[in-house]
Amino acid sequence: MDEITLVKRAMAGDEAAFLQVLKIYENTMYRTAYAYLKNEHDAIEAVQEATYRSLKKIHTLKEPSYVGTWLVRILLNICTDMREKSSRHVLKETIEQRGEIPDDSRFEITEAIAKLPKEQQELIFLKYFQDYKNQDIATLKNIPEGTVKSRLHTALKKLKFYFSEKGEM
Question: Rounded to whole angstroms, how far apart are CA atoms 79 and 47?
Fold first, then answer.
């Protein structure tokens, strides 16, 4: 059975079909959550929450061919919420560990990306870590493709400036 038929059955309330659709996107969802949250436990929790929310809202999906994009959008919203909650705790830990000098040389690109605004972080992540095309990102973020291109360009300029300022380019 093809994916569109499965999605249509899932939208009609067939839970077995919904599980098959999730199985198709399971790896993509986990990799996306892990890359975004950088923690296996949190990634699994985010995928579980996305599964629950998507099961409850599958009937609201408008176009069956965009089920993958729809699932990733739900997942990214959950990851963003989780990141905001955990950032409050990380800030406190950073203040407590102020005297320590961490060895972050291997993670400089991650550090540089983390300094970008969240919207630009998402675009960089989707484009370069998940290999989404600009058109797919535009659909996912519900913005024009030209806006995706200009925002990516701005984000890359900021990264280039960050590294040139550190004397690494």
Answer: 9
Using the CB atoms, write b or e for 38-65: b if 16+ within 10 Å: eeeebbebbbebbbeebeeebeebeebe
Query: What are the CA-CA distances from residue 13 to residues 18, 37, 55, 60, 84 (Å)?
Result: 8, 31, 9, 11, 33
Q: Tens digits of per-residue pLDDT, 46-79?
A: 999 999 999 999 999 999 999 999 999 999 999 9
Please state whether the predicted TM-score (pTM) of the whole model is above 0.90: no
Residue type, 152: L
The ranges assigned to domains in the chain are: 1-101, 103-169
CATH number of 1-101: 1.10.1740.10
Question: In which element (H, E) is residue 37 found?
Answer: helix 15-37
pLDDT (tens digit, 9 = 90+) per residue, 134-167? 998 888 888 999 999 999 999 999 888 888 876 6
146 is written with which tokens? 């030209």
**103-169: CATH architecture:** Orthogonal Bundle (1.10)
51 vs 70: CA distance, rounded Å: 12
Do residues 150 and 52 make contact, with C-beta atoms less than 8 angstroms apart?
A: no
